[in-house]
Design a protein that fits this description.
about 500 residues, about 30% strand
Length: about 500
């Protein structure tokens, strides 16, 4: 069972998710703490980071195994038979038959990574390696520190946000061509969404602009609300409403339809809550969690809000997942004001929800995602703790609830779940605003200590998805103040 619902994502829907922070963990009651020690922070140098929660399937530059300059088997610096053992040229670039960079047997022996993953002691992008070396460098058991070179900047796309700031990134196939596109939402200072369509050549076109009825609080999701096969946009507006903008099929969207919420809406996620085949909407707002069921009339309209009030100061994040393993999606919300409050609502099998479950407390919960890290139970709830700089995994207890969590030193803001290395097991990605923390699944539902990749400062939001069509999830990100949209490619398909 490898399904997952990141925050703002439901079955068949694409949307976005998450920030995080790297730091030292402090053991605390009720949690098992895994401290990664020196997590191998790497200055990515020429690489630039991602533009948001799901980087899209085809948006990046698809290097592929043969994308490098294929100079033949002897393309590296080969001193020849007379160079002697001290010539030092065997660690040069050997393009090899597949065009990848082959560091040679002696490269980077002091790097802490497998020699094949380095050149002269420094990391190189995994996507630039030949297939054999890439397979080794992408194996966390053989090369746990090598994960720092898994993601590297593939492309960036400049756009003018007018200095108003950005908030959220969502991935979906908006034009129905089978490739992921990217939508970027403004923040509370503007009412604009930028939509980047895949250009069919491994990149993205210049963005089209979509205006909303009021300034956005940051909540943005995508789902096919009217059943025409194209994902629509759902937004959280500051005017205490959920907005729906129907997809017109050409990259454009209809005028916004608003559905009244009980208070100012902050976040929005989408999933089929009552099993009728129509995507429904959950929002986090000042007064609680609002559930809007799709009326199923083919026009994208939502029914009246059902408010679930956990008595929080303000709902900060919302995640959808099947926490009790009954096949119906449940949801969880956190309180970004209170010190450790999380409420979990189980589905009553018809899109209504009972009282919140008692749950493990996480110090200052921030980001949340849901997904199965094992194959024998319901979904796990993954929460970041901004107090302890940790990712906390709260797993099913086998009795319809969740049990106390295991904490891993990692980024403590946005978090999401995806199978990063293609082994059939979901992994975890989080960020602290300037690094990615990559926590790979050991195969038993527990995670390796985080490997970290420096991304540059002010990372606001990222999303994960296959943006270049190689089958491996990439990352799209934006920074707080402005563009560009950055596509970070996964080198370990």
């Amino acid at each position: 069972m490898n399904r997952f619902w990141p925050t703002a994502r439901g079955p068949g829907l694409f949307s976005a998710a998450l920030w995080a922070v790297l730091g030292c963990s402090v053991p605390h009651a009720g949690l098992t703490v895994v401290d990664g020690g020196d997590a191998g922070l790497v200055d990515s140098g020429v690489y630039v980071q991602d533009s948001g929660i799901d980087a899209g399937l085809d948006a990046g530059v698809d290097a592929g195994p043969d994308a490098g300059v294929d100079a033949g088997p002897d393309a590296g610096l080969d001193a020849g038979p007379d160079a002697g053992p001290d010539a030092g040229l065997d660690a040069g670039l050997d393009a090899g038959p597949d065009g990848g960079l082959d560091a040679g047997p002696d490269a980077g022996v002091d790097s802490g990574m497998a020699p094949e993953c380095t050149i002269d002691g420094g990391q190189i992008p995994a996507r630039s390696l030949n297939p054999a070396n890439r397979a080794l460098c992408c194996n966390p058991t053989a090369n746990p520190q090598g994960w720092t070179n898994v993601f590297s900047l593939g492309a960036s796309y400049a756009f003018d946000a007018g200095g108003a700031g950005l908030s959220t990134v969502v991935l979906a196939d908006f034009d129905g061509d089978g490739r992921l596109d990217v939508a970027v939402a403004g923040n509370s200072s503007n009412n604009t969404i930028w939509v980047f369509l895949d250009d069919g050549d491994g990149g993205f076109s210049s963005p089209s602009l979509v205006s909303t009825n009021s300034a956005l609080y940051g909540g943005l999701a995508a789902g096919d609300l009217n059943g025409d096969g194209l994902p629509d946009l759902i937004v959280a507006n500051q005017n205490s409403a959920v907005g729906v903008l129907l997809n017109q099929g050409d990259g454009g969207f209809s005028a916004e339809m608003d559905f009244t919420a009980s208070s100012q809406v902050r976040v929005v996620v989408v999933g089929d809550l009552n099993g009728d085949g129509w995507p429904d909407v959950i929002v986090g707002e000042n007064s609680g969690a609002g559930v809007f069921l799709n009326l199923g009339q083919g026009d994208g309209k939502l029914g009246d809000e059902a408010l679930y009030n956990p008595n929080f100061s303000s709902v900060g994040r919302t995640a959808i997942g099947d926490f009790n393993g009954d096949g119906m999606p449940d949801f969880a919300v956190n309180d970004v004001v209170s010190a450790g409050s999380i409420a979990i609502y189980l589905n009553d099998d018809g899109g209504t929800f009972g009282p919140p479950l008692a749950n493990a407390s996480v110090a200052h919960p921030w980001g949340m995602a849901a997904g199965s890290l094992r194959t024998d139970a319901g979904d796990d709830l993954i929460v970041t703790s901004s107090q302890h700089s940790e990712v906390v995994v709260i797993g099913p207890d086998g009795d319809g609830g969740l049990q106390g969590g295991t904490a891993y030193t990692a980024g403590d803001q946005i978090v999401t779940v995806a199978d990063l290395n293609g082994d059939g097991q979901n992994d975890v990605v989080s960020t602290d605003g300037q690094t990615f923390s990559l926590l790979f699944n050991k195969g038993d539902g527990t995670l390796w200590p985080a490997a970290s990749v420096a991304t540059g400062s002010s990372l606001q939001w990222f999303s994960v998805g296959d943006l270049n069509g190689d089958g491996a999830p990439d990352i799209a990100l934006v920074r707080y103040a402005s563009g560009p949209l950055e596509i970070w490619l996964n080198g370990c398909p």
